[in-house]
Amino acid sequence: MENRPKVWCAGISVAPGTTTVVQGAPGTGKTAALDDLAARWESSGGQVARARGSALEGDLAFGVVAQLFDQADADLVPAEALGALRLTATTAEFSVLHGVYRLAAALAARGGLLVVVDDAHWADAASLRWLAYLTLRIQRLPIAVVLAVGAGERCDDPSYDEIMAACRRVTLDHLTLAETDRFVSAHLGEAAPEFVTACFEATGGNPLALTRLVGALAEDGVPPTAGAAWRVAQRGAEVSGEIMAARLRRRPAAVVTAAHCLAALGPSPHPGVLAELTGLSPAELADAVRTVDLLGVAGPAVLDDMPAPARADLHLRAARSLRAHGASDRVVADHLLETSPGLEPWAREVLDRAAQEAVSQGDTAGAARLLWRALREPVANPARALRLLGIAELVGDLPGATARLREAYQTDVDDAESAVALSYALHADGKPAEIPVVLPESSPWAQAHLAVHGLVWQEAVPSAVSLDTPAGVLHHVMVGDISAAEAVPLVSTSDVLSSLTSAMTLNLADSLDEALAVLDEVDRAQAPALRALTNVMRANVQRRKGDLASARADLEVASDHLRQDGRWHAVSTWHAALLADILLEEGRLDESAQVIADASTDEARRTWSFGGVLTVRGRMLTARGDDHEALEAFLAAGRHCAAWPYRNPAALAWRSGAALACAAMGDGERARELALEEVELARSWGAPRALGMALRAAGRVTAGTAGRTLLEEAVQVLRGSPARLELARALVDLGVVLRRQADTVHARTCLRDALDLAQKCGSTAMAARAYSELVATNAGPRRMRQTGPTALTPAEHQLAELAARGRSDEEIAATLLIPAEAVAGVLSGIYRKLGVSGRSQLSDALFVD
Question: 496, 401, 515, 391: which is closest to 452 by C-alpha?
Fold first, then answer.
């Protein structure tokens, strides 16, 4: 392009009698600098002799010398120099060297001579010998020599070393961001910072690349605005590809081959594979790789310059070699994607396995691409290929997943795996009535999946399911016809489905730490929906433990995944119920009510987890004092559960909430019926949390000594469970009853314990209630936060956590930048506030795992 802007390094000057070497990486403007010097020399009346070395002409004796003087006046050429200029001289004899030197001196006598050689590191040996001869003899002549060499380029000729030892050197570098800004603005107008940054990142500040890029952007009419920055990256890749291709075309075949193979294999290629693909000797390969690194011509853009058949053949040879050297299926398959189908009998199996690996890593789009390619291979089992493709599309929320899986199912109706895959597509599409139709009753494995669907959709609840699988166990747990003691031994973690259903069973059985351990082992490199479910389940476990902060953190992670895939309404509804519940514990009633309202969609109302939303709504209305509406919410939750029917109160304790609402409205008899029904169901299940909650409700709706006895039993039962927040709730209720019965001492003890527990759990609402009841005993503290984690300052809390995790005083001091001797004193104050005796008790006091 004639009107392309030019970049060069200004300020290079030469004087007669000197030799200057201009060094720089490819594209830093060496040739442009030589052009500038030559133009200025000629404008001052001098003569210029120019030549350029070439890797392809390195064996041509005096090739560079002949270029320098091919336009010289024949009358000035000494006879001794004719052989060099005519390329008939084969050796750099003294007479030939001196003859060419005399020619240069004669030209210089006419007004000064500038000898310019670009890419001098590629010059032939005879020409380098003459240049070395010249540099030793020009100090008193009006001759200047300027050579340009590539940074890092090797030249083993001894004459080259002589020149480099006697010259002065000028190094050209890449442009800075500020220099890029000035250049872009000078040629395209005032540029936005984002546009300049995009130009800088696309070119790395390389002057040649920047020159070409700016010229291309100007031709395309791209304005230098922030909104057009995305165009820079696209055009920059094209420009870089053109430059790389041009650099390679001037290089020997070995370098071109190495560049192509490196581009195909990517970074850190297997040495054996690279050697096999290039076919070069170790020495040739090492030299070629070094040259490719210097040129910066590795990368996908290099392959674009290859003919399509040659590129495909290179990828096929790479796939074969990588497979022979034990590379992963995914690596081999990525090369097969660039080849034609039917060339290797093992290609389909490799593509299938690679697709499954991609799905497990969360790369669903990549899996779909691999499976589409696998379908073009000779396929022995089309149902399997369609199923794998449909699963990848389903996990990646890609269009056509259900149609693909339905086709796979219809191709082979006896294929249980296709039936299961289609069932999840129907689940995501909100078509639960079709799920039992496709899952075969004869397959226990398929029935286990039907039980999982039944946890969400009423239409999918199986009529009967065995205890052979963890999913079947969970179904019976939810129905309530199996106890916790019977259920826990039946859990297993053989696969993701087993792990998730087992974790739910352990959670309901109050084996909360075991449930978290199972969830921690679930592979997180899964689809967003599965990652969301795993984090919601973790939040549920943490909530049951009373660790509201950790539960909130898990919900935040889950919400990020749910935003990526919003088809799984049961998970998002469960998420909303837990979030609303935590907001309620924090005393943020309006925010809790808004979450409940937002979650009450038509899709959510069809799922089991909406019962949790209704229950939390009842609790929120109770906190507002609207007992009538609260009762309606709890009873609606009961009707919702009855449709499944799941009766285990460990899963959803709506009866206790309804009992308290009835009691507040004066219907004591109905309140006791509801509470005692939940007690009976909880005793059958046998886990302490559900029983303690039911006993607490029964105690609250029962008058006199009988009510106190039930509350005392609730506290006793909950002390044996990990449910600390529920224990705090029971302690408050017991404390209230004891105060009213004038047992002030025991009341204060219960309420103080409740206050500390509520503060540790992060329940502002429960702590406030415990505090107000404690004040009512006339022995309330002057401030709420006397003890517990919330009594610590932020700095104390940070230091305490480090100590709880086993850090030494010296490590803590280094982390927090405080004197080591000060750590022990701060820890003593922390122990007093937390009510512990030493470091060994810190983790329990702070809830640090």
Answer: 496
Sheet of 113-118: strand order equals 47-52, 113-118, 143-150, 19-24, 168-172
Amino acid identity at 520? D
* Per-residue model confidence (pLDDT) at position 1: 32
Torsion sign, CA atoms 622, 627, 631, 633:
negative
Mind listing the pLDDT tens digit for each residue in 618-659? 999 999 999 999 999 999 999 999 999 899 999 999 999 999
Q: Which of 687, 693, 689 is nearest to 674 (CA)?
A: 693
For residues 650 and 519, give the distance between their C-alpha atoms in angstroms, rounded to a whole number. Answer: 19
H helices of 777-834, where? Answer: 794-804, 809-816, 820-834
DSSP element (H, E) containing 541 = helix 528-545
Instruction: Give dist(CA 444, CA 85) in Å, integer.
Output: 90
The angle, 0 to 180 degrees and rounded to 10, between the axes of the packed helices 282-295 and 271-278 is 100
The predicted structure's pLDDT at residue 4: 34
In this structure, which amino acid lies at residue 317? R
Note the helical H segments in 412-522.
416-428, 435-438, 444-454, 470-479, 484-487, 496-508, 512-521
**pTM listed for this prediction:** 0.62
Q: What is the 3-state secondary structure (H, E, C) of 508-537?
A: HCCCHHHHHHHHHHCCCCCCHHHHHHHHHH
Q: Which amino acid is at 472?
A: G
Backbone angles phi, psi at 24, to 5 degrees: 175, 155
End-to-end CA distance of the chain: 66
Q: How far is CA 419 from the centre of its chain?
A: 32
Helix ranges restricted to H, 588-723: 589-599, 602-605, 610-624, 627-642, 654-664, 668-685, 688-700, 704-719
What gap in Å lies between CA 534 and CA 569, rounded to an integer? Answer: 15
* Pairing of β 113-118 and β 47-52: parallel
Q: Rounded to 5 degrees, what angle do the CA atoms 139, 123, 55 make?
A: 160
Q: For residue 802, what are the contacts with CB-CB under 8 A and spacing of at least 6?
A: 811, 812, 815, 816
Non-local CB neighbours of 818 within 8 Å, separated by 6+ positions: 812
Query: What's the mean pLDDT in 791-805?
Result: 77
Q: Smallest Cα–Cα separation from 644: which of 611, 608, 609, 613?
A: 608
Nearest by Cα to 737 from 700, 786, 762: 700
**Helical ranges in 189-299 per DSSP H:** 193-203, 207-220, 229-249, 253-265, 271-278, 282-295
